[in-house]
Amino acid sequence: MNPPEIRKAPVSREMPYYDWSLDESVRYLRWLLAEFPFADWKEHAVSDNAGGDGTPVRNSRSQAVQIAAMLSLFCAALLRNGANRMGFVYTANSQRSGKSLLAKLVIMPIYGSFKGLSWKNSEDELSKVIDAEMLTGSIYLCFDNVRGYVASPTLEALMTSPSWSGRILKETRMFEVKNRKTLFITGNDCVLSPDMAHRCLICNLHVNEGNVQDRQPSWVLDEEWLLNEENKRCVLSALWGILRAWARAGKQSATSFGCKPRLGFERWCDIIGGIVAFAGFGDCLETPPVESGGNTEEGCIRNLIDYLRVKTNEQRQEFEFKEICQICHDEGLFEWMLEGSERDGVFTPSPKCRSALGRMLSRYAPSTDENKAPRRYVVAGKAYCFGTRDKGRKRRYFMQEAA
Length: 403
Description:
36% of the residues lie in helices and 19% in strands.
């Protein structure tokens, strides 16, 4: 598939990019990303008030996240010192979906190369990797092909710290540098802890083919393509065209488009989210839908609450812990901690699983017997309270519509 017909005026030292309009820039990026299996597409009409004629437009939240990632590095200078930067997680239901390639598409046009890092389960080892990368002056970290449950106090601290200090390897001297890092993580069905989920935007990819080798892209986008100077210029020209149009239009913030910034990342969200929405790619800050929520602990909770919501409509008001375990097993929730055995369709959790799942649920469904108010969740457009009553074997989980 050939790229769209777009003007390519001569470039110079003073103007290294093509002078593309907003429409040309958006058309190029949509063409560039057309082969990737982004999830959660939906259609909406562009109203006259938004400068459109009511023509339906299909947008993907995950595609909007990719545009945000590209703009985040390209527009890094727009963020003031100390502003927290959102991270990006690429996850898919299958290998060879394009997760790493999307990360390379963000990084290589700007920096000319890509360095993928291996995930370290030890916090000490992870800290050493971060220290080394900080000393090199690189402004991104990309952990490639991460598996399982992703939780790290070290990374969480990195993403909300304006500066970073550590010890120089094999020396007793310490160092301190400004923190300009943007985090990227790729992995199949990796699950984020609540703290990591609050700090990252998730790009979901969904491959429909049972055999991934049956996928037939109409053209090849690979590292060789990304290293081509003309291709890099086109990608950067598209980003520049969007940024320039946004600045000339008054630098609208994400909140002006109805997007909700993440707490602690308001400056980043208002700028980058505003540019993405202005370009017509949709809301990159949107919470993933319930059916895509399995990539986070909170997503699993939303799935659980949605299931219990249906049960409450069947006049069920309270649930025993063993029923919650069975639901989680049947619905594929919290798979990283759901150890146990199954016989005749009945799941029996291991002692370790009961302890871990019970502690985790206590955060999302606090005990009213300890004078804690049940937590409030919005599912299917309605607000519900989720909490527990009694203790030990008598403990019951309840869910009811919020007043």
